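To whoever is on call:

I kicked off a structure prediction for a single chain this morning and the downstream step that reads the tokens threw a length-mismatch warning. I double-checked the sequence; it's 186 residues and nothing unusual in it as far as I can see. Pasting both halves so you can look.
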Amino acid sequence: MFPRGAAIRTTAAVSARPPPGRPECMAPATGILTNVLLSVQMDFPAPVLKHGDGDNPEERQMRTPLARVRGLGSAKSGTDAFIAERVTSIALALLTPYVAIILILLAGQPHEAVVSWLGSIYVAPAVAAFAVISIVHMRLGMNVVIEDYVHGHGLKTLLLVANWMFCWMLLALCIFAILKLMFVQA
């Protein structure tokens, strides 16, 4: 229950008087033990912390046995992807209403009107930004899912590369389509 090497000290203070701030008339009817204070103090040995690169097993005192067996440490990365996901989600939150209003206004319009609207200088950059940010956000999210739930190293690497290639291909197609709408009017 207690760590090896821990010393336990208990002290008890017994008083027939009520605790401070409590009137005499509120003392218990028995009047024998009105205030018992138990304090348990535990003296734990201080962990031995050594500085170094962590390659020496004696220097890895703070790691669990499973972590020592696996040999895995901190990846020293991940904050950049976390921040990028948050930034892209904020940008999408700002762009989505604009693109949604455009799509609602274009619903039911003839093909020529849709092409001219999407190719205009006011709409095409917003749609391009929406496509780029959506694809980057999708890639970051899929990377997290693949890294967390795929456990085979070879399969994980294959899926990460496939995710990267798919997102770049989709991004190139979206940009090409938007540029074609902007510069080649049908």
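Update from on-call: the warning came from a stale cache, not from the record. Cleared it. Sanity check on the structure: Confidence is low (pLDDT under 50) at residues 10-15, 27-42.
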